[in-house]
Amino acid sequence: MKTRRELLQYAGAALAALPFAKTFAQSRPRRTSPGAIVVSTWNFGMQANDAAWKILGSGGHALDAVIAGVGVPEADPKNTSVGYGGLPDRDGHVTLDACVMDENGKAGSVACVENIVHVAALARKVMEKTPHVMLVGEGAQRFALANGFPKTNLLTPESEKAWREWLKTARYKPVANIENHDTIGMLALDAAGNLSGACTTSGMAYKMHGRVGDSPLIGAGLYVDNEVGAATSTGLGEEVIKICGSHVVVEQMRLGKSPEEACRIAVERIIKKNPVKRDDLQVGFLALNKHGEHGAYCILKGFQYAVRSGAQNILIDGKSHFA
Questions:
Q1: pLDDT of residue 178
Q2: What CATH code would you report for 44-322?
Q3: Which of 88, 190, 201, 301 has its CA 20 to 30 A from that of 211?
Q4: Can you tell me whether residue 283 is helix, strand or coil?
Q5: Is 276 helix (H, G, I), strand (E, B) or coil?
Q6: Cα–Cα dist 206/25, whole Å
Q7: Residues 41, 95, 183, 201: which is the catalytic one?
Q8: Residue 310, exposed/middle/buried by CB under 10 A (0-12, 13-18, 19+)?
Q9: Known catalytic residue: 200?
């Protein structure tokens, strides 16, 4: 048992040490003027990055860039895991989820939205025009139509054909890196040094109607802290939700971990809860810190992410826990 004097001496020493405590900015060497950079999940992030760079490259705002970037796969009928052309739920409905977050910590989100293509832009409207963070279902669709978003049938003939074929067996076993990557997450750092992010998806193919994964959930599918960095996730959203995955990644970067190290820690938390290797369990995290450093880590081999800075746009294989 410490005496009162010993406790006062201990408290004094702790207070004296505070000026020497490292902030995030001090814990990692700062690059001079890292400049604008955008990163996004999967190979379709290459085209998304190009669209984002049209804004970032001219000194534009990171939030504008990520909305423009993810809008590309949202409108691509050949992409069966994001937006228009996404594979439906088991009842034949294509429902979309998305969220955005800016450098001020503001956030907007929509979930289980039908008949609206650009749900990331809709999430931004929620952030900017309502007192709420999240709108879902019919209410989100009404809000979209009231704000000028066109109503579109999201179920393409190709996706409907795939769904009807699935109905013959109705076997629900998503294929890792194909049916269960289901997301584009994009993070951007603009020339002014501000971060923003967006995450958008049509969700798991043939999910139960009403299912919502991590993608529209702030702290799970996306998290941005302008003092530290940003993170997004892809894969089996239920497992990401259970650990508040993207928030975990950002907090690890706050403690001085590199983006890749921070992503690895989040992945290892999921693996600890799922110790037996499963071929259908894929989760990947992607992170970008305030210094312009990026990194990723996933459970199963196969997760890729795209990086654009200046004229260079490259695709990188994320490191994986299991080969």
A1: 52
A2: 3.60.20.30
A3: 301
A4: strand
A5: coil
A6: 44
A7: 183
A8: exposed
A9: no
Query: For residue 171, what pLDDT is reported?
Result: 80
Q: Are 283 and 236 in contact (CB under 8 A)?
A: yes
- Determine how β-strand 195-201 pairs with β-strand 184-189: antiparallel
134-136 and 229-235 strand pairing: unpaired
Query: CA-to-CA distance for 107 and 218, rounded, in angstroms?
Result: 7
User: Could you give the CA distance from residue 207 to residue 96 in angstroms, rounded to a whole number?
Assistant: 12
- Could you please report the per-residue DSSP string of 63-86? HHHHHHHHHHHHT-TT-TTSSTT-
| pLDDT mean values, one per 10 residues, the chain (323 residues) | 51 45 49 80 96 97 98 95 95 97 98 98 98 98 98 97 94 60 89 98 94 97 98 96 98 98 98 89 96 97 95 95 88
pLDDT on residue 4:
52
Strands (E), the chain: 37-41, 96-101, 107-113, 134-136, 184-189, 195-201, 222-225, 229-235, 283-289, 294-300, 304-309, 312-317, 319-322
Residue 6 has which token pair?
A: 């010993």
29 with 83: CB under 8 angstroms? no
CA–CA separation, 174 vs 89, rounded Å?
12
Measured CA distances, 87 to 154, 234, 235, 290, 298 (Å): 9, 16, 15, 36, 24
Rounded distance between C-alpha atoms, residue 24 and residue 219, angstroms: 19
DSSP string for 128-185: HHSS-SEEEHHHHHHHHHHTTPPP-----HHHHHHHHHHHTT----PPTTTTS---EE
pLDDT of residue 175: 61
Domain spans, the chain: 44-322
Contact 284, 299 (CB under 8 A): yes
Q: C-alpha 128: how far from its chain's center?
A: 20
CA dihedral angle for residue 316, residue 301, residue 271, residue 234, rounded to 10 degrees: 50
